[in-house]
Amino acid sequence: MADLWKDLNLFAEEVVESQAIEILREQARLLNKKTNGMVKATFSKINYKTSFVETFVEAVGTAMPDYLKSEKAEILEDDLKDKEDLNEMYTSVRYKFEIFNDTYRFRIFTLNYKKIFPIQIEIDGGIRKELNIQSASEDVNSDEELTELVSKVFSSRKLSTIISKMMSQQS
Description:
The protein is built from five helices and five strands, in the order αβαβββαβαα. By secondary structure, the protein is α+β, with helices and mostly antiparallel strands. A five-stranded antiparallel sheet has the order 1-2-3-4-5. Strand 3 and strand 4 form a beta hairpin.
């Protein structure tokens, strides 16, 4: 039998897991401190509401016999039960970074997060224009790139103006 693994290059690339979640949660906490609680930030998963049709289909689906359902629960063999599924490294989860006070809120960016790079960030259109960022979604290939990009976003004139407006409203 032929060796189908012959071109496997095991040491070609080191897999680096992103620390984006921790970095951005810390930045959200820092804004609260910098503004003495007048403007707060949140970095959290985006939750979507399901429509009536989706809810109905899901409810009907749960009453259907297993052989009629399109998704079936996989039963893992004993030797795989305690193993972490590495498919999750490639699963994207959408997060939002927003600032808010008692009256206003503003979404600065969304992040399509995966455990490994690249990850994508979608910055507010006005800030993107100010920073001369052409594409709607930027690929980020390291924690350093993320830190540099977010620092530019946080230093934008639009964001400074919005934070000033929120703080003056609180006075």
